[in-house]
Amino acid sequence: MNAQRAAWLFLAPALLVLGVFFLVPVIAALVLSLTDYDLYALANIHNLRFVALQNYWALLQRPLFWSALGHTVYFVAVGVPLSMGASLGAALLLNSPLARCKPFFRTALFAPVVTTVVATAVIWRYLFNTKYGWMNYVLGGLGIHPVDWLGDPHWAMPTIIAFAVWKNFGYNMIIFLAGLQAIPPDLYEAARIDGASAWRQFRHITWPLLGPTMLMVGILTVSGYFQLFAEPYVMTEGGPLQSTTSVLYLMYDEGFKWWNLGSASAVAFLLFVIMFGVTVLMLKLSRRGHHADGEPA
Amino acid sequence: MNPQLAKTLINGLLLGATVIALFPLLWMLSVSFMPAGGASALPPPLLPAHPTMDNYRELFVHAGMGRYLLNSLLVSSAITVLSLTFNLMAGYAFAKLRFAGREQLFQALIGALVIPAQVAMLPLFLLLKYIGLVNSYAGVIVPGMATVFGIFLVRQYARGIPDELLEAARIDGAGEWRIFGQIVLPLLKPIMVTLAIFTFLAAWNDFMWPLIVLTGQEHYTLPIGLASLAREHSQDSELMMAGSVITVLPVLLLFLAMQRYYLEGLLLGSVKG
After folding, report:
1. Which residue from A3, A171, A227 is facing B98, i.e. has the nearest CB?
2. Cα–Cα distance measured from residue A23 to residue A38, given in angstroms and rounded to the nearest whole number
């Protein structure tokens, strides 16, 4: 009896915080998304009306929602593979017995992860400046004409993706590195004795054994990349021509610029549903891939 | 492949990647010491011809950067201390105290991780507006006072504490709070350090929620202050680089000093079960 009471006393502060400042708001967001909560309701709650699914319906008919979703999916679909590829590449290099000064390289490659997005986004804005930026200067040396990286609707998102890869790859690199170190060395030893090339060792030992890590990292990275916001906020303000307006950017504008909190909540929920769907899909696909592959030969 | 060649190739690639990772940060540091307009030249200069502290002086004297720095320190420290306390208590309870519904409650918390934090932000803003916490330090701190991730991390670690140790203390008549304070907390020290660094860095770098809840400059944290300066002074690259240095340097130094703990926490948090 007494132990039970003690347990709940230990739990109470954390549960109270999570309940009041997370659980209740999430449920409230669902309710809010079914109302027309706006500036008028903010001034006087009696102006609030229940509108059922109208916010969702209206959103699905708005081109801006679809383009924001499109930009976000673009960012995820291109950014996640590039990001994970860079992480895996760096981890493989660091894990190689031939690599020197490993602690230094590891720390240096990880450093961008702990920096503040806003500050590094500001740096990239100047590195990718059309006239005086290093990027165009280096490309100019190769004979390529200056590109208006953040001012051209075709180049703004790729620039943001490059920034995100630079900023984030170190995180998954550390996780992959731990995964690589957990692979028993005798497997490689046996493969070498059988005369397997480095590529075949990677394909038949490293890749399958890294599978579970890869799936987990993939799911976490995808859900992180769906939450794109600070990068376009600082680098492009969602432009040019709204080419970098993400779903969360739309939610922020809708909610805290125009104070359409009902509609903004619907945006947030749609994003949640999409993220959830993608996660489930990834789990399903990986399971099927596992069965199709069968036992590693 | 020839081993000597492979060795050169691997270390060359690592060196190249390191240059890409560090160049923007080193360039930021260098430009921050250039006089106004100094970086706008062709070819882009690598080092300041006449190093100056003018940008830093300008930021601290006229742009309120000192205030933002103190705000960031205050808010991040408060979040760290409070969430560390609450997460330690809850994580320990989930790991070592028996109560009805323990596993179900923990599973529910883990399940809640799939909900992105932004879903809660709109009603949270209304809630805080109602209690009068919008545009205050408390508005930033209060929602960060406990995290599922932190509770999870502490629980994983605390499960390693032997039950016999706690039972023996109970038989000796020690109360639950004394057991927690005198036996459990000292054993949890490594995870405390890890979680503290993690929380502090996350709080320092946090952007979206402070941007929403802080409506007046006087409470701005560094990222919010820097973002607003960057919109005003988009042409003053030297000034903005100094602002970025002030924002990034504290967390970068903290990481360098404590990186062992930080990387350990990163792995503990990502390897479930």
Report:
1. A3
2. 22
Q: Is the dihedral of CA B155, B159, B163, B168 positive or negative?
A: negative
Cβ neighbours of B151 in A, within 8 Å: 14
Domain containing residue B180: CATH number: 1.10.3720.10
Q: Six-digit token pair at A288? A: 């099927």
Average pLDDT over residues B160-180: 92
Cα–Cα distances in angstroms (integers) from residue B216 to residues B68, B210, B211, in the given order: 12, 11, 10
Q: What's the rounded Cα separation, in Å, for the pair A264 and A258? A: 10
Indicate whether B7 belongs to any domain: no
Residue A27 lies in a domain: yes
The domain that contains A201 carries what CATH number? 1.10.3720.10
Give φ, ψ of A35 to 5 degrees.
-120, 170
Residue B72: closest CA among B220, B179, B270: B220
Q: Angle A110-A111-A116 (CA atoms, 0-180°, nearest 5)?
A: 120
Amino acid at A183: I
Q: Tell me whether A131 touches chain B (CB under 8 Å).
A: yes
DSSP of B171-202: HTT--HHHHIIIIIHHHTHHHHHHHHHHHHHH
Per-residue exposure over B47-59, b if at least 16 CB sit within 10 Å of its own CB, e if not: ebeeeeeebbebb
Residue A4 lies in a domain: no
Question: pTM of the entire structure?
Answer: 0.94
> Does residue A5 lie in a domain region?
no
Q: Is residue B234 part of a domain?
A: yes
Q: Confirm or reject contact between A26 and chain B (CB < 8 A).
A: yes
Residues of A in contact with B108 (CB under 8 A): none
Instruction: Supply the ipTM of this predicted assembly.
Output: 0.93
- Is B212 inside a domain boundary? yes
Distance from CA of B258 to the nearest CA of A (A): 11
Using one digit for the tens of pLDDT, what is the confidence trace for A14-71? 999 999 999 999 999 999 999 998 888 888 888 888 998 999 999 999 999 999 999 9
- Assign A50 to helix, strand or coil: strand
Domain residues for B114? 54-270
Say yes or no: A233 contacts chain B, CB-CB below 8 A: yes
Which pLDDT tens digit goes with each residue over A182-210? 999 999 999 989 988 889 999 999 999 99
Q: How many structural domains are present in chain A?
A: 1
Write the DSSP assignment of A180-247 as a string of letters.
HHTS-HHHHHHHHHTT--HHHHIIIIIHHHTHHHHHHHHHHHHHHHHT--HHHHHHTTT-STTTT--H
A with B: how many residue pairs have Cβ under 8 Å apart?
270
- A3: chain B residues, CB-CB within 8 Å: 97-99, 176
Domain encompassing residue A83: 22-293
Nearest CB to A118; choose among B41, B207, B234: B207
Distance from CA of B51 to the nearest CA of A (A): 19
Instruction: Determine, yes or no, domain membership for A15.
Output: no
Number of domains in chain B: 1
